[in-house]
Amino acid sequence: MKTIFCITGLAIQGLAMSAQAQTGKPNIVVIMTDQQRADLCGREGFPLEVTPFVDRLAQENVWFNKAYTVMPASSPARCSMFTGRFPSATHVRTNHNIPDISYQQDLVGVLKENGYKTALVGKNHAYLKPADFDFWSEYGHWGKHKKTTPAEKETARFLNQQARGQWLEPSPISLEEQHPTKIVNEALAWIKQQKENPFFVWVSFPEPHNPYQVCEPYYSMFSPDKLPVLKTSRKDLAKKGEKYRILAQLEDASCPNLEQDMPRIRANYIGMIRLIDDQIKRLIESLKASGQYENTLFVVLSDHGDYWGEYGLIRKGAGLSESLARIPMVWAGYHIKNQPAPMDGHVSIADLFPTFCSAIGAEIPTGVQGRSLWPMLTGKAYPKEEFSSMVVQQGFGGADVGLDASLTFEQEGALTPGKIAHFDELNTWTQSGTSRMIRKDDWKLVMNHYGNGELYNLKKDPSEIHNLFGEKKYSKIQTELLTRLLAWELRLQDPLPLPQRRYHFKQNPFNYLHPEH
C-alpha cells in the first residue's frame, strides 16, 4: 500500500523557484466535498473523531461555524461559488438548468487574466467545461468520466449496478481505488508539474454524497450502535410541513427498510468523511513537505449538507434546515491569521470568488454579489455589520406542488421503480415555490412566497422543531429578521446590466455595502 501513496512532498522537492515567488500571487487550492453537513466534527463538539486533520487545520488557521451555501443543491451552489452570484441572479435554481446561467465574469476568467494555470480534479456539476481549464479529470458519484483502467471500469460497474443508492456491507472498492484517494493522487501529480505560473486547483470530492459506500478500515471505524442518538424522528414531520412528508413518502417507496438501515447508512456517511479527511491530510502535508504550503491559499468546504437521519430522512430536498444549509468552511495557508475560535461572521459560498480576487490583487467584477473575506482572514479591519447575517435561497418558483397532485413519483422521474434507493430528492414537490432563509446569531427565520414563516432559536432548538413565528413574545426579533431579509432581497437584485449612460455605479473594493466604521 505504501507504493500507492508515493506522491509525497519529498517526491516534488525538485520543483523550481515557487510560482508565488516569481509572480507575487498565491497558489489556490479549493477542497470541496459534496453533501457534507457542518456539525459532524470535533471543532463543533461532535464526540466521534470524524475530521481530526481538518479540525487541527481549522484551529491553527481560520474557520467559520456560520458559513452557508446559497441553496442546498449541488449545481446552484457550485455555479454561485465560481460566479459570486446567488441563484436568483445566476438563474441556476435547480440541478437541471445549468445552461441558463447568467454572469459577466467568473473566477476562471479572472485567474486566467492573472496568469494562473487551472485544474479540476473531481466532481464538476457546474457550467464549467474541460476547455475552460488547463487540466481536467472529472469524477462523478458513479465513477470516473474517462475510465482508462480495468479497476476504474469495475468501480463504475459496481457503483452503477449494485450500490447506486447505498451499500450496507464493506465496499469492495479498495482504498486505493476510492475516489478521494485517486483524486488526491491526480491533484498532486498535476501540482508537481507546475513550475512557472501560480496554480489553481479545484479538488472536488463526490463524497460523502450517496451512494453511501465505504471500504475498510472506515466501514468499521464508527459502529452503528454507538452513534449519537438523533434528537428528531419521523414523528416530527408533522411540525416540519408537507414537503418533508412528501419526501418521507418518496424515501419509503424507494427504501422500504430505511428505518432499519439508517444506523448503518449514518455510520457509512461519517466513515466516508473520515476517509476524505485522511486524504485532505495527505494533500496538504505533501504541499508542506515541498515548501509550497505558505505560498498556497487553501479553503475546505462543502456545497451543502445532508439530513443524516434528522426527521427520519436521508440526503436533502425539503426545507432549509441547518443540516442542509450550513456548510463547513476552513481557510488556511497564505497570509491567513490564526484565530482558534470560530470567526464571528455569517458568510457564504458566494464569498469565495471575491475573496480570491482580493488575495491575488484583482478587482471584483461587476455583477458579483458575494463579499471579500480577505480583510477578515488576514486580521485587518472590516465592518462587523457586513457579516452580521446571511441568507439562503430555495425553489424554482411557481406554486407549491402538494400531496394531492395527480403527478406520480414515477411519472416525474423522482423514483425508479423496482430499484432500491433510486430516487431524486430534488424534485417537483420538494423544490417547487420560493423560500428564503436568514440567520442572525442564534436566530433563524424562513419565509415562503405564501407569507408562511418559521422562526427558531438555534441555541435552544438546534433541530428546528419549535416554530416561534407569530408568537407575541418574539415579535421584536421576528420584525428585525423580516427587515433584514427584505434588505438582503433588495441587495441581491441582479445589478447586471449596469447603467450604460450617465449613472455612476458605486462598488466597494471588497463588495461591502456597510461602512467600515
Automatic annotation (TrEMBL):
Q: Where is the N-sulphoglucosamine sulphohydrolase C-terminal domain?
A: 423-486
3-oxoalanine (Ser) modified-residue sites: S74
InterPro entries given in the database record: Alkaline_phosphatase_core_sf, SGSH_C, Sulfatase, Sulfatase_N
Domain of life assignment: Bacteria
Q: SUPFAM superfamilies of this UniProt entry?
A: Alkaline phosphatase-like (SSF53649)
Pfam families in alphabetical order: SGSH_C, Sulfatase
Q: How is it modified after translation?
A: The conversion to 3-oxoalanine (also known as C-formylglycine, FGly), of a serine or cysteine residue in prokaryotes and of a cysteine residue in eukaryotes, is critical for catalytic activity.
Q: By what name is this protein known?
A: DUF4976 domain-containing protein
In which organism is this protein found? Bacteroides acidifaciens
